[in-house]
Write a structure and sequence with these properties.
about 45% strand; about 350 residues; mainly beta
């Protein structure tokens, strides 16, 4: 279904998707800054993409919409005004929205990742220093709300007055700026004790290539008393991506930690890592892809993932325009399927890929 043509090749305008309690599909189509509008669409029928209605034309970037059961939308996003400030809006029905509320605006702004845990919503973010901006992104912060955005607090439950505007504040998980390290955010999950676990990568610089090695993957786990930060492994690009899966004492990371056919570029080969001791030690379980013609990239974990559809990602040549295929794996992470590149009918079988 063609929903919208924004007449741009800027991938920042890619949309995000969320379902409400009734099963309606909501599409949040981003803008990149203020040059173009952003849109919110809703499927006419639940669990259907046959037809959509446009609900709102406005402006937002980096949308992260969350539907909290029986409460409605809590919509995290970025707005551009002298930098990239984090904001949130709420809506019971997706049609009438609160005014945007500022969450954080330290120096030139932030990137963030988020996840929900029941009625709680958490966000982890870095910050862009006044000198260096996006290329100097650093530090790690965490906030959560348990009352649909009415109040915000730290992992320790300490109330936070928003917006955050100072580099050093109670939401700071770790000061990487003092160590000369950049921070690239990857994922946020909650463990068996419902404590937040943050997944991120640190690097010595923003430029591609071996000069800024090692690019180290870490978890930051809240123990109930303090944040504990531990390394996992390394990869060869700051924008290598991965998703964290926590099931009791079974922790797994699905990430692009092996070089691909375009080394020192975004993406690579997909590997599965596991930990049985809350991230103290990790071992590589398997290479999920190998000898690929193009780099795989951006493995994403669906919300309320089905065991047969546990991660979705694409591939592509990182150095030149190329074809791009869509892949997925199961909860066991022992097989990979390719979505049909061309659909001749409403239904088609995915193909098992042998790497």
């Amino acid at each position: 279904t063609v929903l919208l043509n924004k007449k741009t090749g800027d991938a920042h305008d890619n949309p995000t998707l969320m379902l409400d309690d009734a099963g309606h599909v909501w599409i949040f189509s981003n803008a990149h800054g203020t040059a173009r509008p952003a849109y919110i669409h809703r499927s006419v029928k639940p669990y259907s993409i046959d037809a959509f209605e446009r609900v709102l034309t406005t402006n937002f970037s980096y949308s992260q919409p969350w539907y909290l059961p029986e409460k409605g939308f809590l919509f995290l996003h970025t707005r551009y005004a002298s930098g990239r400030g984090l904001h949130w809006m709420t809506s019971r029905d997706g049609r009438t929205w609160s005014d945007p509320q500022p969450l954080a605006k330290i120096a030139q702004g932030h990137y963030q990742i988020s996840w929900r845990d029941g009625s709680r919503l958490g966000t982890a973010f870095n910050y862009h220093p006044a000198k260096g901006g996006l290329n100097a992104r650093t530090n790690l912060y965490y906030l959560e709300t348990r009352d649909h955005g009415t109040t915000w607090q730290t992992a320790a439950g300490r109330p936070i007055r928003t917006p955050l505007t100072e580099v050093r504040n109670d939401a700071l998980v770790h000061d990487f700026e003092s160590e000369g390290l950049l921070v690239y955010l990857k994922d946020l999950q909650y463990d068996a004790n419902r404590h937040p676990v943050l997944l991120f990568l640190t690097s010595k610089g923003y430029q591609s290539g071996p000069t800024n090695d090692p690019r180290t993957w870490h978890t930051a786990r809240w123990t109930g008393k303090e944040w504990v930060i531990r390394p996992i492994t390394t990869s060869d690009h700051n924008y290598d991506f991965g998703s964290l899966y926590l099931h009791g004492d079974d922790w797994r990371l699905l990430a692009l930690t092996a070089p691909g056919p375009q080394p020192y570029c975004t993406g690579g080969e997909m590997e599965v890592w596991s930990s049985r001791d809350e991230g103290r030690t990790w071992k590589k379980e398997r290479a999920l892809t190998r000898n690929s013609p193009r780099n795989h990239t951006y493995a994403r974990r669906p919300v309320d993932a089905h065991p047969d559809f546990y991660a979705l990602w694409a591939d592509g040549d990182a150095k030149k325009p190329s074809e791009s295929r869509l892949y997925f794996t199961n909860r066991a992470m022992d097989r990979v399927w390719l979505l049909p590149p061309v659909m001749e009918a409403d239904f088609a079988k995915p193909e098992v890929v042998r790497f």
